[in-house]
């Protein structure tokens, strides 16, 4: 079985965020890391391998599209236990929207070879669109089972549980397929010292768009269907409102305040 897990290199949410002059996210001058939501995808890919009757026959490849620094996200997945990495790095990719990203990912997956399961996180922590897994399934002409909170598999049979606002769905499919997982699937493992050392010897392939047969004119900011028109810094935090209850009117004052802010 061949499993590809898509991982994204995102700006560290604890660092000061910055934007380029074209309103795209600064991914070079800001510290980055593997998206936390994609760590769950890596974990589930590794569990699929470990639960297989022949784990040695299963290969988990971590795939990322991004700048040079995105290799760090792939290395984190390798340290967690992935077997190989693939990195699409090309200046023309900068500013790509979800449509273009899914196009590049699909081309890279086809380049990797015959794939049984493509695993994705439920969203990226910087974009939060949650549409790339579905777009990827369409481009690869594969069934999709998305937003899985519980995953069960036996041979080529997969069954997931998807928790919605009003109901829980049980969805089944057979491989090959695209699977996206939520943060309810279980905590992701931490890389062990042994895993960190072993990752240094694992293969990590780099591809340019030309290696994948993707036209540079079809990706990037100029080809994006969506774009950020403007950005502005978050206003400084103001002093809060103190509600006192010296004369017994505190409850009324608190209710009026919450109502004025449309919290109730």
TrEMBL record:
CDD domains xref list: ETF_beta (cd01714)
InterPro entries in the cross-refs: ETF_a/b_N (IPR014730), ETF_b (IPR012255), ETF_beta_N (IPR033948), Rossmann-like_a/b/a_fold (IPR014729)
Residue intervals of the Electron transfer flavoprotein alpha/beta-subunit N-terminal domain: 22-216
Key words of the record: Electron transport, Transport
CC annotations in GO: cytosol
Physiological role: The electron transfer flavoprotein serves as a specific electron acceptor for other dehydrogenases. It transfers the electrons to the main respiratory chain via ETF-ubiquinone oxidoreductase (ETF dehydrogenase).
Protein name: Electron transfer flavoprotein subunit beta
Organism of this sequence: Nocardioides marmoriginsengisoli
């Amino acid at each position: 079985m061949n499993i590809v897990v898509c991982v994204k290199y995102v700006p560290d949410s604890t660092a000061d965020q910055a934007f380029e002059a074209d309103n795209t996210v600064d991914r070079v001058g800001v510290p980055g890391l593997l998206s936390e939501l994609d760590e769950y995808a890596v974990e589930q890919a590794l569990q699929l391998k470990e639960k297989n009757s022949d784990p040695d026959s299963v290969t988990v490849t971590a795939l990322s599209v991004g700048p040079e620094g995105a290799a760090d996200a792939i290395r984190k997945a390798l340290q967690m236990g992935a077997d190989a990495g693939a990195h699409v790095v090309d200046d023309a990719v900068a500013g790509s929207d979800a449509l273009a990203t899914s196009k590049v990912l699909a081309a890279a997956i086809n380049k990797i070879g015959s794939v049984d399961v493509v695993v994705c996180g439920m969203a990226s922590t910087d974009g939060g669109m949650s549409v790339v897994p579905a777009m990827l399934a369409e481009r690869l002409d594969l069934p999709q089972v998305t937003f899985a909170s519980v995953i069960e598999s036996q041979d080529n049979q997969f069954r997931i549980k998807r928790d919605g606002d009003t109901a829980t769905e049980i969805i089944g499919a057979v491989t090959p397929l695209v699977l996206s997982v939520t943060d309810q699937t279980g905590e992701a493992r931490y890389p062990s010292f042994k895993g960190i050392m072993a990752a240094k010897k694992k293969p990590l392939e780099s591809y340019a768009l030309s290696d994948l047969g993707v036209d540079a004119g079809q990706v990037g900011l100029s080809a994006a269907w969506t774009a950020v028109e403007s950005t502005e810094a978050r206003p400084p935090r103001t002093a809060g409102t103190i509600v006192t209850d010296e004369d017994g009117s505190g409850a009324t004052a608190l209710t009026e305040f919450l109502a004025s802010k449309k919290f109730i």
